[in-house]
Automatic annotation (TrEMBL):
Residues 33-105 form the S-adenosylmethionine-dependent methyltransferase Rv2258c-like winged HTH domain. The keyword Disulfide bond does not apply. Residues 179-292 form the Methyltransferase domain. Keywords: Methyltransferase, Transferase. GO terms for molecular function: methyltransferase activity. InterPro entries: Methyltranfer_dom, SAM-binding_MTase, SAM-dependent_MTases_sf, WH-like_DNA-bd_sf, WH_DNA-bd_sf, WHD_Rv2258c. This is Class I SAM-dependent methyltransferase.
Amino acid sequence: MCDVPTLGTADTRHETTAEAFEERLVNALNESGLMLLLSLGHRTGLLAAMAGAAPETSAALAVRTDLDERYVREWLGGMVASGVVETDPQAGTYWLPEAHALLLTDKGPANLAVYSQFIAILGSVEDDVVRCFREGGGVPYSRYPRFQEVMASDSGQTVLPALFDAILPLAEGLIERLESGIRVLDCACGRGRALMAMAERYPASRFVGYDLSQEAIDWARRETDRAGLSNLTFEVRDLSDFDVTAEPDAFDLVTTFDGIHDQARPRSLLKGIHRTLAPGGVYLVQDIHASSHHHLDRDHPLGAMLYAVSVSHCMTVSLAQGGEGLGTMWGRERALAYLEEAGFGNIEVHQLEHDIQNDYFVCRT
């Protein structure tokens, strides 16, 4: 940590700002360390094991979780230093307070430890991203073997819990149509968990999911077969030419959940969605809540994190395909312009109380 030089009375305001900024950076380093520790705790099952458990030693916790004690003990040290785990030094025991367990495990309404995994995933491709800064181009999807898995967990906490009570009802009359039986397409569906939930809830409707990732589609097919959902199919498909290849008037509902901004050619996908919607159809979009102007993102509660995700994933995977590189933070203004350009003349924008990260667009022709 560097010393801040004394600049004299004329520069007091600048000196104070420098000190405050230094404090912020030191805090950021600590919090970044905490994110890595939380990711380890989530993936190894340590956080889940400690939720609701009585105080215990590192050795007892290691036995119970079938993990190496030395690693468990060091992890516990970081959790104590960060104020997440409590300890009794005389007894040598550790425990996770209930209030913390409710936010870091499935014991509560949202497991925020899920999101800590993004830090390690994005950090793992830093060398590739540095190369792109110097040479251009992008980092392909294949360099992110766990991203689809973590995104599925993310949507499992933002989209799935609100899908039937808050998201689908945004489009008036849509629930009744799904119950009666319509044709539904989810573009850039990932592992397809939203589609699975809808296919189970609305057996009279037919559902299709497209995604570029073979890994994601293979997972979705296995889970669909296991659930016995005969009204749901998945297909590996490059959507960069969807404006030309989309079947006209084929679907009554098209959805994209966090699926536009990392496409190679988002304009082509949106035009294809407009093309494939039948008369009276609805396009329901969930995408990142942001502005298309940097200065208006200054007060965004997740702004820095989402720009980091953009540089290290969403923007660069698009550029790796020779695409537009729209990026995570493309913003509401640009989204509305692209939707209008694609042919949607009736667009409603919504935000949900539980979801500070996303906007929801209901689009009709």
